Amino acid sequence: MHWKVLLNEAIDRARRGQPTEAITLFDQVLRLEPNYDKAYYNRGCAHDDLGNIDAAIADFSRALQLNGQYFNAYINRGNLYRQQGQFDYAIADFDCALQLQPTSAKAYGSRGLAYLEQNRYGTAITDFSQAIHHHPRFAKLYLWRGYAQLQMEHPRKAIKDFNEALSCDSTLADAYHSRGLAYVELGNFYQAIADMNQALELNPVMVEAYGNRGMLRHKLGDTKGALSDYKRVMTLVPLWQGYQADASPTLSGIAQSYEKTLALPLRMAELYNNRGTLRAELGDADGAISDYTMALELDPAKARTYNNRGLVCCQRGHYEAAIADFNAALERDPTYAAAYSNRGNARYQLGDAEAAIDDFSRALELDVNLAEAYLSRAQARAATQDAEGAVNDYQQAIQLRKQHCIVLA
To answer: Which of 78, 77, 39, 36 is closest to 60 using CA atoms?
Structure first.
């Protein structure tokens, strides 16, 4: 069989979603015609479809050795380098592509994504703007530029871009979700929830939207709705050792590819922490401790979660366990004033007033406006017969509370 017939059959198999069979045929083509750049390029695409990234890069590289003008080989190899975090190589490929096609929206957009993933938001915006100039109806270009604007704390510019994205594609769930995040930045929580709702209508398995809507509902006092959203997140995202964010089909496109600040386990840790706080407010101490413990398994570096779990342990009268948690919080953040104050309370409950006073004093060195620490230290000083110190602390607490329009009971 002539190699051109094999090549056409291989390309057809790849287009029909049969990359393994296509690769077998491309191999045969290359045995017959070992220097045919198109066969290497298409085999690289088939390897990419199968997730064989190294093999795909090797094939695109060979295609480019044979044909240095192969625009799509530069684009595809650049995108694979970008996915692997090799941004210098990726940008070099996109630069070459732009030398070949200076008006290519695809090349500008791809390079913009590489800059975006490096948190080079201004440069990314410049590339996305160039891409939009050459392809003004490509919805995702507005989405990506809006995301960069949001990261630069320009929520109104971001909203404008998300609106443009939705005018090009009204089914773009990521644009609704991202616009909701921009409204959060502006303090418009109800509009933000409306956008999260719309995103979830379009994509009912968008984990990020459930998580963010849950946090907003919690903030607005909708405890039932918040718990429902947190539960939905836990249902959608299976947790197992070694779980990787980029393996999840449930994350939004932005979160999946372009948001590098938090890996999935860290985002899940935050959600467990938030649900734990909500459960603690509702009096479900066991549930709160369970959620805080899960959050710490996912992100053991979070001082705030240790502090939160310690508070619930205090409420249950488990002061030794609470102190262990406050110690862990302070190991991770030695400037955590509230953790010192909370540890002081636990120590006081165990009868160690002197150690408690030391903790309250350290808390107040770090935060002179911590009224609760003054109140607690007043109580501890009274227990050590320091009446004058107790009165002074109580007066300080009264002054701070008056400044915040709070009346002491």
So the answer is: 77
Full pLDDT tens readout for the chain, 409 residues? 577 888 888 888 888 889 999 889 888 988 888 999 999 999 999 999 999 999 999 999 999 999 999 999 999 999 999 999 999 999 999 999 999 999 999 999 999 999 999 989 999 999 999 999 999 999 999 999 999 999 999 999 999 999 999 999 999 999 999 999 999 999 999 999 999 999 999 999 888 899 899 989 998 999 899 999 988 888 886 543 333 434 333 334 333 333 333 345 667 788 888 889 988 988 899 999 999 999 999 889 999 999 999 999 999 999 999 999 999 999 999 999 999 999 999 999 999 999 999 999 999 999 999 989 999 999 999 999 999 999 998 998 888 877 665 444 4
Distance of alpha carbon 2 from alpha carbon 409, whole angstroms: 92
Structure tokens at 106: 């695809």
What lies within 8 Å, CB to CB, of 174 at 6+ separation is: 143, 199, 252, 253, 254
In angstroms, the CA 214 to CA 196 distance is: 10
Distance CA 227, CA 235 (A): 12
Domains of the chain: 137-201 (1.25.40.10)
Output 372-376 pairs: Cβ under 8 A, ≥24 positions apart.
372/341, 372/397, 373/337, 373/340, 373/341, 373/344, 374/400, 375/408, 376/341, 376/344, 376/345, 376/348
Calpha distance 292→304 (Å, rounded): 10
